[in-house]
Amino acid sequence: MLVTFPVAVDLSTTAVSSAAAFYSRLLGWSVDGSGDAVVATVDGVTVATVRPTRTFHSGWSTVFGTADPTATRAGIVAAGGRVYGTDPAGMLRAADPAGATFAVTTGHTPPPPGPGRPSWFEYMTTAPAAADDFYRAALGLSPVRPDGAPDDGFVLFTAGGRPVAGRLTLPPELAATVPAGWMVYFGCVDVDDTVTVAADLGAVVVVPPRDTPTGRLSTLVDPTGAVFTLLRPAR
């Protein structure tokens, strides 16, 4: 089975320029480009791409790298997913049986985690068994319960024997506010201060800053409607 893992993030948005400006001020991005695509960098490392959406919905996509896009496409379909086609950037756009979207590209090395950079990826769901089955079959991600975990409410998705993402079963209080699907976590030095800046820039706080086994985090909706999480990883 092919092994895939998250290698990039991509924001499809109804307002490319304003979204790029928001994240630049919030996360310290440098941006280049306009119109069809804006590439964001931190310290010279590419961390995200911002593109215009074909719909009226803004959202972040987790992009998985694969050595064989054709085989991965077939695996997605065989597992019950849907393939929408290839976008202008050459990425395969797809969705799992629950409708959560993601992208696939020819494998490359992801940027190292850090402030302003994608630092973790987590699949939010109210149907954990179905999610585990699909991503195991389609993308080769193996669900593994962390040592000491009381149940399988949270598992690590591993690829090649190492953790590359997580899967969280949304409790009712979060399921009412946090959308199911792939969540992108951006690293930051101080979550509380960054949330204050985000709110001043027009973001809506969905999950206030709190400590978790993953680290201190907060989930927000940016001014264009895309949901993301800020994370200071646990040490």
Polypeptide structure, described:
It is built from 5 helices and 16 strands. With 235 residues, the protein is of the alpha+beta class. It has an 8-stranded mixed β-sheet, with helices on one face. A hairpin with a 5-residue loop joins strand 2 (30-32) and strand 3 (38-42). It is globular. The model has no long low-confidence stretch (mean pLDDT 93).
Secondary structure layout:
Layout: E1 5-13, H1 16-27, E2 30-32, E3 38-42, E4 45-52, E5 59-66, H2 69-78, E6 82-86, E7 92-95, E8 101-106, E9 118-125, H3 128-139, E10 142-144, E11 154-159, E12 162-169, H4 172-175, E13 181-187, H5 191-200, E14 204-212, E15 215-221, E16 227-233
Parallel strand pairs: 1-4, 5-8, 9-12, 13-16
Antiparallel strand pairs: 1-5, 2-3, 3-4, 6-7, 7-8, 9-13, 10-11, 11-12, 14-15, 15-16
The secondary-structure element order is: EHEEEEHEEEEHEEEHEHEEE
Radius of gyration: 17 Å
Count of beta strands: 16
Q: Which percent band covers the strand fraction?
A: 35-45%
Main β-sheet description: 8 strands, mixed
Helix run count: 5
Low-confidence stretches: none
Report the helical percentage: 10-25%
Tell me the span between the first and last alpha carbons: 33 Å
Spatial strand order of the main sheet: 2-3-4-1-5-8-7-6
Structural class: alpha+beta
Mean pLDDT: 93
Outline, from the CA principal axes?
Answer: globular
